[in-house]
Amino acid sequence: MRKSAIGLLSLCSISLAVSQSVNANSHNDSPTTDAITVTTLAEGLEHPWGMVFLPSGDMLVTERAGGIRRLTKDGVLSERLENVPEVVANNQGGMLDITVDPDFSENNTVYFCYSKPSDDGQAGSSSSVAKATLANNKLENVEVIFSASPVIDNGFHFGCRLVFDADKSLYITLGDRYKYMKEAQNTNNHFGSIVRINRDGSVPGDNPFIDGDAPEVFSYGHRNVQGVTVHPQTGAVWAMEHGPKGGDEINVIKKAANYGWPEITYGIDYSGEIISDKTHMEGMEQPWLYWDPSIAPSGLTFYTGDMFKEWQGDILVGSLKFTHLRRVEIENGKPAKQHEYLRENGARIRDVDVDSEGAIYLLTDAPNGKVLKLTK
Fold first, then answer.
1. How does pLDDT run across 174-187, given as a tens digit for each residue?
2. Averaged over 220-244, what is the pLDDT?
3. Structure confidence at residue 190 (pLDDT)
4. What gap in Å lies between CA 95 and CA 160, rounded to an integer?
5. Fewest CB within 10 A of the end CB: N or C in the chain?
6. Active site members
7. Predicted pLDDT at 120
């Protein structure tokens, strides 16, 4: 049922007893069952991609085609915000992730990552981050604070997830732009890297490649990082990236670390060709967890709420390929059992987040995309 763009949405709820049976790193886990209520908070979103909660309990949701919309906690979905900059909505590109300033209550500042058109009017785009002041349903003082270089004319592997750490540094995940995978080993550009900047776009003085041509780079050797979060106890940045055919990874991000792509990988090319016959090399990090076959993961967070008490400290990630929410248990710092939820819905899960009460929110990646709320 399609709702109007503005107005109170009638909330559609269903209660599901969900069975899980998954494998991780080719190991099978025992099936379990949990009762979950799924509520559709909003629909009619055009390929929703990223979301963030505001202190009021409202949510901002991006649409890959170029919009940012506000969803109140009561289910009122706004029209697109005014003054959103132009995006190159080509293939995987468009308006992607969004987050809020650590001091949002004082400054009303939001940050969003998008595929920005070339400044010279030529074909191409770059993964770029802008900051702006949120004034009701309008953006003001829009300022681009980072653009990946060089500008590339293709529509693949933008990365574009955002997270702030405890020091209020902003981490931006980037992709290798597909055709340029070998450049993920080059720290003098932004291909296949995670960058760290200050809130004004300046470069922290202790970044590891401060004297290079891409001083924003914090870690490298990534393929296409589609999830990033901060561990609630350690404060470490964790990231999740798409492998090729096999080899999706979750990594604990360390300063100056090389995560190996494409020199090492647990996957092969989509054509079946070998990208590398190596899974280990000296000086390159091993993933904390990898999936083979790939699940096409997107969105990443730790569960810290009280609603699903038995999930405390577990990882939540969406699966695009296998259309489910996946929960990864952690035992003694290592991945343990994994669980699937909502696979029978057939919806590609693009992002996952948790509110202050412990409810879980999902974005479904579709022309008529939805915001789903999961509760006990």
1. 999 999 999 999 99
2. 97
3. 98
4. 9
5. N
6. 157
7. 83
